[in-house]
Design a protein that fits this description.
single chain; 244 residues; three-stranded parallel beta sheet; binds adenosine-5'-triphosphate; binds magnesium ion
């Protein structure tokens, strides 16, 4: 819950800290990234390459640019696979420090294709405080093993709600992120509060990390971005060791 919200706000927070950031919205069934970023124009074709639109310093390509809602649900594995390949190969991504991939829920064809096309991809697991952590941990671990992608950290979303009295109310339980991170053997990289403005921002096209960077959620995303930068690349690839 909150994968796309976390993806978009983390992307924008990273861009505000000076990183070059792009998002591939690979959620064919519920692409929400363009509207969260306030992007309503499609990519521009430049020669053979698609140039992604940019908003709040973040470049974005989405399945949503190319299909209508009712079409997307009919897409099958091979078509998805081909489309994802095109999005990775035929798009002028530049050389982003972070190419973030927003995946649809579950462990489907999209995740398998991504693992194949982006073998260096790394996984951030978004969870909520109340989840049956063991089950989620198992699912995430199994997926990562199947895809041979390392899990780098956990983000807990909707960790608390701060009332007008300044008190934190843990509406959705407590400890889910910490437990999950422990059982996966990774760090809990951030906790994002529940905020009605986060939902409104999702509709308005201006992420909270931009509109209110000093607010409670804005600061949470800024500190998450710092943790992600500090994490660095999980595996270092030395070009002199490659063959061919
Ligand atoms: N911390 C938060 N505070 C308030 N609202 C939130 C928060 N996180 C997410 N939401 C709201 O919850 C809804 C679902 O969030 P989001 O679309 O990011 O989830 P998702 O995991 O990407 O969902 P899907 O599985 O459909 O892709 C959205 O309306 C979003 O604005
Ligand atoms: Mg989503």
């Amino acid at each position: 819950m909150g994968k796309s919200t976390v993806t978009v706000n983390l992307a924008v927070a990273l861009a505000r800290q000076g990183a070059s950031v792009a998002i591939l919205d690979a959620d064919v069934y519920g692409f929400s990234v363009p509207s969260m970023l306030g992007i309503d124009r499609p990519p521009v074709l430049l020669g053979d390459l698609l140039v992604p639109p940019v908003a709040h310093g973040v470049r974005c390509i989405s399945m949503g640019f190319f299909v209508d809602d009712d079409q997307a649900v009919m897409w099958r594995g091979p078509m998805l696979h081909k489309a994802l390949e095109q999005f990775l190969v035929d798009v002028h991504w530049g050389k982003p420090d972070f190419l973030m991939l927003d995946l649809p829920p579950g462990t489907g064809d999209v995740a398998m294709s991504i693992a194949q096309f982006v073998p260096r991809a790394e996984v951030l697991v978004v969870t909520t405080p109340q989840v049956a952590a063991e089950r989620v941990a198992q699912r995430a671990a199994v997926l990562a093993r199947q895809l041979r992608l390392p899990v780098r950290g956990v983000v807990e979303n909707q960790s608390w709600f701060t009332g007008d009295d300044g008190k934190r109310y843990e509406l959705f339980g407590h400890g889910g992120g910490e437990t999950l991170a422990k059982s996966l053997g990774v760090a809990l990289l951030g906790q994002i509060p529940f905020l009605t403005t986060l939902r409104q921002a999702g509709d308005s096209g201006v992420p909270v990390a931009v509109s209110d960077p000093e607010g409670e959620a804005g600061r949470a995303f800024a500190s998450l971005a710092e943790r992600v930068v500090a994490l660095g690349p999980g595996r270092v690839y030395r070009s002199e060791l490659s063959i061919g």
